[in-house]
Design a protein that fits this description.
118 residues; mainly alpha; Methane Monooxygenase Hydroxylase, Chain G, domain 1
Length: 118
């Protein structure tokens, strides 16, 4: 029934209105006094040095991808732990296989030197 979606539609309308009103009020009320100091790039309180187009080492991206992989593993472990009793031995074996595959991947990355930061 379309009437059942009315609360969702109302929530969506309220969210969009809130965003539009907040941005509009910010531009109306906010002070506009640009200065060279305000327009300068800000990086953690330190004046920027060099170009923002600098190339990064591939190792940076490899470390980032490994972090994401093992972070997602932790995300998968939580729901498994919540319904562990309902899954029984099959769920235990499946998660064991999952962890072993990830562990083998970690050992492979370690042996290849992907975790070395030089």
């Amino acid at each position: 029934m379309p009437i059942d979606y009315l609360p969702i539609f109302a929530f969506l309308v309220i969210a969009v209105l809130f965003a539009v009103v907040t941005i509009a009020l910010s531009s109306i009320i906010g002070t506009k006094k640009p200065s060279p100091q305000k327009m300068m790039t800000y990086e953690c309180g330190v004046d920027p040095i060099g170009s923002a187009r600098r190339r990064f080492s591939v190792k940076f991206y490899i470390i980032a991808m490994l972090f994401i992989i093992f972070d997602i593993e932790a995300v998968f472990l939580y729901p498994w732990a919540v319904i562990f009793k309902d899954l029984g031995i099959f769920g235990f074996i499946e998660m064991g296989v999952f962890i072993v595959v990830l562990f083998v991947g970690l050992i492979y990355a370690w042996k290849r030197g992907a975790l070395e930061w030089e």
